[in-house]
Specification:
Elements (H helix, E strand, L loop, with lengths): L1 H12 L7 H10 L4 H8 L3 H7 L10 H17 L30 E2 L1 H6 L54 E7 L2 E6 L4 E3 L5 H10 L18 E4 L1 H6 L8 H6 L7 H8 L3 E2 L7 E9 L2 E8 L8 H4 L7 H14 L7 H12 L5 E3 L6 E3 L48 E3 L4 H4 L3 E7 L2 H6 L4 E2 L4 E4 L9 E6 L7 E4 L2 E4 L19 E5 H9 L8 E4 L3 E2 L3 H17 L8 H8 L7 H20 L25 H26 L5 E3 L2 E6 L29 E8 H10 L24
Parallel strand pairs: 1-4, 2-5, 5-8
Antiparallel strand pairs: 2-3, 3-4, 6-7, 7-8, 9-10, 11-21, 12-22, 12-23, 13-20, 14-19, 15-18, 15-19, 16-17, 21-22
Length: about 750
């Protein structure tokens, strides 16, 4: 009988009631859980949990997983009940006070500053929709538009639930424009505010006092993001700023300190950062306790939104520009400057260097004397001499024009390698390029990096878990015989690039390498014996949260463009075909997210930017705790090794070898034009550890296809048999004479 009861209980549990997909996601995010956290607890794959939360085609858990999932959601629902729409009782509002509209909300709501402060806020949005809403119209509202504050639109997809903060109820930013003499602030979600400010200092005051702009902090010890105001050309004219910078101002990166607007700010007791009033100006007053007063300005007509990373964003109408920047802000963070600057700032926002502690005697909060665990701290540390770029103060004693060799300088860079095609490859018809999605982000995921200063050691046995730079001879590693997993395999080493150098050349002696590179030599089955090393005993997975934030931003935006993470290979290739054309504005966001990854990592080794710098002198970036060339080197090393591992797996299984690699793009000769013509899929499943088609970081997409005859003709035209065809595989256009060096 007990067995029957158990069976009945299991049958009931297998149909446990579950909330909607939106509510499932809201509850998970509200508790700060990642998809990986839930997947690990329920012993399922991350993609499975993602599918349970999919708002387009949610799948339903079955069996014991459903019961456990229902139990988790029930407990979270008790902790984070769904917001209840506000109701108002009591004395009716006076006739002159606007009240909440009970009818359908207008597509574009317009508020005056006064109304914004007097009207009760609408109820917070319980969950984000599946797709990012477009503004109802790209035209600006006229004076006849209703001024009653209607119900605000839902936040863009990907906005964490529980983010709603009454201080920032109008979103993270606003695009300020002028039409017919009226100044309007276009916010996210289609909301438009009237701006009463008649000067730039008063605009800053209005932003801080009445606009209710900003973004909640990304981590416990952190601080909320400052509001961002984007000024159109018309707004620049209205507030006395030039529409464009002169050649001298572009070189200086700012307008002169004697400009009338700068003087207005000084008279109003506002300050500018050391970079002055440039395309990304920060206007602030010194903080008093926890009261921070700071506004970020963005001026697109001054090239704040570089077309290389933001496409045509600077030319968008205000409402559309607010949408693009708003989606980026909700999924990544409020821009703090270029995409590179924002990528670096995101690292700090997720791992603030300091935190508050309560004084035991006074009970007052004060800044802790020790750095926040897992952060880089607030003080910069010097790199190791081998990690220092040319011109660094650590190298001041070297003779001028000294060229350091691999045994003196750590040189971890992305691949730029190519080789001539074999006779057999020339008989094939196509060259097919594969591109690794978010390759450098994937390289950062789970990577152990140094958090403190380096320690110099000699005779230390190599430890793959200890981040650092190692002087070791890897010239004995022979790619013609390597370990793949637990098996030794024989390959044609002449057709493979070395995994230890960016140009793919085999090392000839001792050289400096980051930990992932040396660990890969061991993985291939060879012993390593470091001569000396600079290691960092204080270490951790500093970039994990950074990776997760950018990964989720990328996947959410690609899903909005119709490219889901769980598509079959053929469907994925179809979905990727001209995907940006489905929503060009979200296409801009995708490009900006990618640029944030690469730019943020590049900033870890920022070089001098003029300012009269001379070799041997310190430059401004060295004063940042986030100037960490060792972290950059480790990420690039791991990214290159990840790609080489896939190439070796593919060669061992198929006998196919790449003919060109450029960074995260690899080119193969193929009998057909599609990646599916040479990737070894079996019943829809890829080679384990090899190339897999998909949108997740680390998986690959189709970069482009050209004829083999095109490749041979291009190489012959430039008399470069090793010209890197990966550089031009996307569209076949060779823009400069790459000599293959």
């Amino acid at each position: 009988m007990s067995e029957m009861f158990d069976a009945v209980d299991a049958l009931v549990a297998s149909r446990s009631a579950l909330p909607s997909a939106e509510e499932r996601k809201r509850l998970r995010v509200a508790h700060g859980l990642t998809l990986d956290d839930v997947a690990g607890a329920l012993h399922v794959r991350r993609a499975t949990v993602s599918a349970w939360e999919s708002t387009k085609k949610p799948t339903e858990p079955r069996g014991p997983e459903r019961e456990a999932y229902a139990r988790l959601l029930k407990q979270l629902a008790e902790l984070y009940p769904a917001p209840v729409p506000a109701t108002f009782t009591g004395t009716p509002a006076p006739a002159e006070t606007p009240t909440l509209s009970t009818g359908p909300a207008p597509e574009t709501a317009v508020m005056t500053a006064t109304e914004n402060t007097q009207t009760p806020a609408p109820a917070p949005v319980a969950a984000a929709p599946a797709a990012v809403p477009r503004p109802a119209s790209t035209t600006r509202p006229t004076s006849s538009t209703s001024r009653r504050p209607g119900a605000k639109k839902a936040a863009p997809a990907g906005t964490p639930a529980g983010d709603t903060d009454p201080r920032f109820e109008n979103g993270p930013l606003a695009v300020v424009d002028v039409e017919d003499g009226q100044v309007l602030a276009y916010c996210t979600g289609g909301l438009v505010l009237d701006v009463p400010a008649k000067s730039l200092p008063s605009l800053v005051d209005w932003t801080l006092r009445e606009a209710k702009l900003g973004q909640p902090k990304l981590s416990g010890p952190g601080r909320p993001a400052d509001p961002l105001i984007v000024l159109t050309e018309a707004a620049c004219e209205r507030y006395g700023l030039p529409v464009a910078l002169t050649a001298e101002e572009k070189d200086a990166g700012r307008i002169p300190e004697g400009h009338k607007v700068v003087k207005q700010l000084v008279r109003a007791e506002w300050k500018l950062t050391k970079r002055g009033f440039g395309p990304w100006a920060r206007i602030y007053r010194p903080a008093k306790g926890s009261d921070r007063q700071c506004v970020q300005l963005c001026i697109p007509s001054w090239n704040a939104l570089d077309a290389r990373f933001w496409g045509d964003a600077a030319q968008l109408p205000p409402a559309e520009l607010a949408r693009v920047l708003g989606v980026y802000a909700s999924r990544v963070m409020t821009p703090r400057g270029s995409t590179a600057v924002t990528g670096l700032e995101l690292m700090t926002a997720l791992h603030p260097p300091t935190h508050a502690v309560r004084d035991e005697e006074t009970g007052v909060l004060r800044q802790a004397e020790t750095k926040t665990p897992g952060s880089l701290g607030k003080d910069p540390v010097d790199c190791a001499p081998c990690e220092a770029p040319d011109g660094h103060p650590l190298l001041a004693d070297l003779p001028r024009f000294t060229v350091r060799g691999p045994d003196q300088k750590l040189f971890e860079e992305a691949y730029d390698w190519a080789r001539p095609m074999t006779d057999a490859e020339c008989t094939l018809r196509y060259l097919v390029g594969l591109d690794v999605n978010m390759a450098f982000a994937a390289g950062a995921n789970g990577l152990n990096v140094g958090l403190g200063e380096p320690t110099h050691v000699k005779g230390l046995a190599f430890d793959p878990k200890l981040p650092g730079s190692w002087l070791v001879d890897l010239s004995h590693v022979d790619l013609s015989k390597v370990k793949v997993g637990k098996e030794w395999v024989e390959l044609d080493g002449s057709l493979l690039p070395s995994p230890f150098t960016p140009k793919g050349d085999r090392p000839t002696g001792p050289a400096w390498y980051a930990t992932p590179t040396v660990a890969y030599a061991q993985e291939l089955g060879y012993d390593v014996a470091p001569i000396e090393a600079w290691v960092r005993y204080e270490n951790g997975r500093y970039l994990d949260g950074w990776y997760a934030r950018l990964r989720d931003a990328y996947l959410a935006t690609m899903a909005d463009l119709g490219v889901d993470a769980d598509l079959a290979p053929a469907d994925f290739l179809t979905a990727m075909d001209r995907y940006k054309e489905r929503d060009p504005e979200l296409g801009i966001v995708v490009s900006a997210i990618k640029a944030t990854v690469k730019g943020g990592l590049g900033k870890l080794r920022e070089r001098p930017r003029g300012e009269g710098w001379r070799p041997g002198e310190r430059w401004r970036a060295l004063e940042r705790p986030t100037w960490r060339p060792d972290i950059r080197a480790a990420v690039i090393s791991r990214t290159r090794i990840n790609l080489h591992r896939k190439i070796v797996k593919h060669a061992a299984f198929t006998g196919q070898y790449p003919i060109a690699i450029l960074s995260d793009c690899v080119v193969y000769a193929s009998s057909g034009p599609s990646p599916l013509d040479f990737l070894p899929y079996r019943e829809g499943k890829p080679l384990p550890g090899g190339f897999k088609l998909g949108i997740n970081p680390g998986l690959v997409k189709h970069e482009g296809t050209q004829d083999v005859l095109w490749g041979e003709e291009v190489r012959e035209r430039f008399n470069a048999p090793e010209l890197n065809l990966a550089r031009s595989i996307k569209d076949g256009t060779v823009t400069d004479a790459d000599n293959g060096e």
